Predict the 3D structure of the following.
Amino acid sequence: MPPEYRDPTDPMEWLRRARSNLARAKADRHLAGVLYEDLCFDAQQTAEKAVKAILVERQIPFPKTHDIVDLLTLLKEGGVDIPEEVRQAGILTEYAVDTRYPGLSEDVTEQEYLEAVELAERVIRWAETLVSRSHEQEPRNAREE
């Protein structure tokens, strides 16, 4: 049986993946041997995929990048107002690469981890609001095709 196809042009699929990353970032916190660096990567992925959901929904092309500031800039250029509390998530970009490998950065602290999760939560809440508002305005049968 072939795997279920997940449509990369569906913003709800991007949000589903973002929610999964956020759940992992929060759930794995107390597992023995799990590093804050890895949990912060999931927080970064949450924000990145949530922003990409809006880009997909607005049909704004984007490059393969982990840079949240660049992605938010594309949204802004596309006419989307970016709240300050969302723009702050740009600092999560450092968790996309540098903290994932030994020797490229200092260890992530618990406080930094908690802040990363809070930023990721802000971004996904904002994205869900924008994308769900758009889907509510879309005719029902257009979504089901």
Remarks:
- The CA atoms of residues 90 and 131 lie 20 Å apart.
- The domain at 11-137 is CATH 1.20.120.330 (Four Helix Bundle (Hemerythrin (Met), subunit A)).
